[in-house]
Write a structure and sequence with these properties.
The protein is of the alpha+beta class. It has two domains: 266 residues, 3-Layer(bba) Sandwich (FAD/NAD(P)-binding domain), CATH 3.50.50.60; 166 residues, no CATH class. Helices cover 27% and strands 22% of the residues. The protein has eleven helices and 20 strands. The strands form six sheets. Strands 1, 2, 3, 4, 5, 6, 7 and 20 form an eight-stranded mixed sheet that branches. A four-stranded antiparallel sheet has the order 12-13-9-14, with helices on one face. Helix 1 runs parallel beside helix 3 and helix 10 packs across helix 11. The chain is globular and about 65 Å long.
């Protein structure tokens, strides 16, 4: 059976509370009985930044929301992946904060608990931005452990029911309409029925298995962006590290799309000694909230298929090998890091790209570069085009700033083709590969999630479908939840 149509049109029509018949996996083997366990107005699959914001936004409009995640905490890349800081939420000039709503509320809560530095206080070209200037003004350093608590509280206060350790198996379909999902939990296979579903899996897993058209990576190049395993270190003599880097700032440069930035001179030493085999020529190391803590984004694993278990497994192992090499590098070559301690690696690989779901409109990168503001705008952003590995070489990438102050993401990108009752949130939305390289980062992903949650709530309130929802109704609802639309 085609896995995109697994459980397909049978609809799983058993009565609530009953046990569903044996169902078959994609390969045809029996998985066991499916229990009718959950009923909600809205099911959100994936508890990353976009999924949390989708769930909270909908619940604040009175929707009964079930949010499921296969891990043990909310926050996705920001917590399990240790990805940090939040990239910019300002316009291209660095004058105005334009990503607001639930993202701004999250930041304010983090700051109040001592878990973040507000982006208004972080400027480009400092240790908080890995000394990068272009596109990195007003980032937000944060503590992932405090972010876990903030997300827990936001969901609890809104009345969102959260279910951890629940892996999505298959959509429940009736014709082309999605009516919930089969989940694999410690209790076995369980059905979660819902009137609407939001796919915030990152990989577009729900949409793909429901039959929506998708592409993998960049069809033109046949590649996906490389993955990275983030890690955090402490016991760093921060002032010695800063003193090592700052005299070299005039040497920062890009040659043939390869960045020679922080510590590139130390990397050259290690490379000459045969103690560096990573594909990067410099080290992205970001100062965090606590004085001695830094976030490292330097590992690079190419050709990772995030929809394939074996590929992900190999990537996780290779990521940890690269972390070990980097720790040896810090101890031997980097002043201030001689006794640095590995606080932890991400519990999941940082995936930049996998599936892109095709929707009513595929957002082209040209619209971002040209600063197009669509009529059905749901978020304004100014994040740069950042496509790692785009030039084909192991260290090369495409980095391009936009030509205007900001651009807009249209609502149409959230509506997948060929599936009813489903909305997209996060990096799987309908955009071409380079456009996705800009809006995949957490602030716009959170804003997109909030818009998806509000749109789902409006559909449930009015009886509209995602495809027929009137933007004239969506815009005031976005503004009511403090989304900035210009």
């Amino acid at each position: 059976m085609d896995r995109r149509h697994f459980l397909g049109t049978v609809g799983l029509a058993a009565a609530a509370g009953a046990t569903l018949p044996l169902v078959n996996s994609c390969s045809g083997s029996k998985l066991g009985d499916v229990k009718e366990s959950y009923q909600a107005d809205l099911l959100v699959v994936g508890g990353g930044p976009s999924g949390v914001c989708a769930a909270v936004a909908a619940a604040r409009r009175g929707v009964k929301v079930l949010l499921v995640d296969n891990g043990n905490c909310l926050g996705g890349m920001g917590t399990k992946g240790l990805v940090g800081p939040f990239m910019t939420c300002y316009d291209a000039s660095g004058e105005n904060m334009i990503i607001r709503g639930l993202f701004e509320e999250t930041v304010d809560r983090l700051v109040a608990e001592g878990g973040a530095i507000h982006p208004s206080k972080v400027r480009a070209g400092t240790e908080f931005t890995a000394w990068i200037k272009e596109g990195h003004d007003h980032v937000t350093p944060f503590d992932p452990e405090i972010l876990k608590k903030v997300y827990d509280r936001m969901c609890a206060e809104a009345g969102v029911k959260v279910l951890f350790h629940a892996s999505f198996v298959s959509p429940i379909m009736k014709g082309r309409k999605i009516q919930g999902a089969i989940l694999l939990t410690p209790s076995g296979l369980e059905a979660a029925r819902a009137k609407m579903v939001i796919d915030s899996t990152g990989d577009g897993t729900v949409a793909y298995r429901a039959g929506a058209p998708c592409v993998f990576g960049d069809p033109e190049s046949g590649r996906v962006q490389p993955a990275s395993l983030f890690f955090r270190i402490n016991n760093v003599d921060t002032y010695r590290l800063i003193a090592e880097v700052e005299p070299h700032l005039p040497e920062f440069r890009r040659i043939n799309s390869v960045s020679y930035r922080c510590l590139h001179w130390r990397v050259a030493e290690a490379e000459a000694a045969g103690e560096w085999d990573l594909s990067r020529k410099s080290v992205n190391i970001w100062r965090s909230v606590e004085k001695d803590q830094w976030v490292v984004n330097c590992t690079r694993i190419h050709g990772v298929d995030a929809t394939n278990c074996e590929s992900l497994t190999d990537a996780e192992v290779e990521g940890r090998r690269q972390v070990e090499e980097l720790m040896n590098f810090f101890h031997k070559y980097v002043p201030g890091c001689e006794v640095a301690t590995l606080m932890g690696t991400g519990s999941t690989m940082g995936v930049r790209e996998s599936r892109h779901v095709h929707g009513d409109f595929v957002l082209p990168v040209k619209d971002l570069i040209d600063g197009v503001i669509p009529e059905d705008i749901i978020v304004l952003a100014a994040n740069s085009i950042d496509v790692h590995g785009a030039m084909g070489g192991p260290a090369g990438g495409l980095y391009m700033q936009i030509q205007k102050e900001m651009y807009g993401v249209p609502y149409r990108c959230l509506v997948p083709r060929d599936v009813e009752g489903l909305l997209l949130a996060g990096r799987c939305i309908s955009a071409d590969s380079p456009a996705a390289g800009a809006i995949r980062v957490m602030p716009p992903a959170m804003a997109i999630g909030q818009a998806a949650g509000i749109a789902a709530a409006l559909c449930l309130e009015s009886g509209a479908t995602p495809a027929t929802l009137d933007y004239a109704d969506l815009k005031p609802a976005l503004l009511e939840q403090k989304v900035f639309l210009g």
